[in-house]
Amino acid sequence: MSKIWFVTGASRGLGRHFVEAAVAEGDKVVATARNIDGVKDLAVKHGEAVLPLQLDVTDRAAAVSVVQEAIAHFGRIDVVVNNAGFGLFGAVEEITEEQARDQIEVNYLGALWVTQAVLPQMRTQGSGHIIQVSSTFGVAAFPLFGGHHASKWALEGFTESLAQEVGPLGIKVTLVEPGAYTTEWAGSSLAAAEMIPAYDHARTASQEFAEANIVPGDPAAAARGVVEVANAENPPLRVFLGTAGLDWLPAIYADRLKTWDEWADLSRRALK
Prior knowledge:
Distance between the termini: 58 Å
Order of helices and strands: EHEHEHEEHEHEEHHEHH
Number of helices: 9
Largest sheet: 7 strands, parallel
Strand order of the largest sheet: 3-2-1-4-6-7-9
Shape: globular
């Protein structure tokens, strides 16, 4: 039986590719975006397979209303992809209060509001799959992305709790963690803080690292991977999209384990 998808941030980037991949699978999609003009063409292209709806994910009441409209139209929601988000580039000292709040509002709270809005229906169905679009930045931190990391680590934390809460109810949960892709993320979807010259060394190192190590992947391939996850009988809680996580994360986690072990005596002495 075909699935009904609910995709946020569907106007461009990975979100648009998620819609296309789901439709190619024979599924139907509620494609949402803050500006509905960005998703109307998907309905023109795919007809009744795509329902375009306007949604600013930072508006909790709107999330509830739009989810209910989607259910009224298609009868159910089987897969939610919380994809809406943007990046924030800047040293911790450089980030403004407004930038920090905007990052959390969209990347963390936006996903939380949509998740809360869809859960009553999924509990009633006894089924459903919530797919959170995190990032390799959700499991490891690098200079100049502290604000972005904070939002993605928050997303990862509440989602891991969520998976344990709703698994017994028949609802599946997955965090997909993409590396770099040829989307607008590093362009129009990336906010930047005003630079303080003291952190130019970090900018130089970051640029050199990116030039030497990052080869952006094909977003259509990432979307096909998400469809495969959605179709899996026993999907993972976490899965990388692309090889960035496979290349970088093992050494980072090994170092964490090594440090915890080196300081284990203090940890035990801090108990009593």
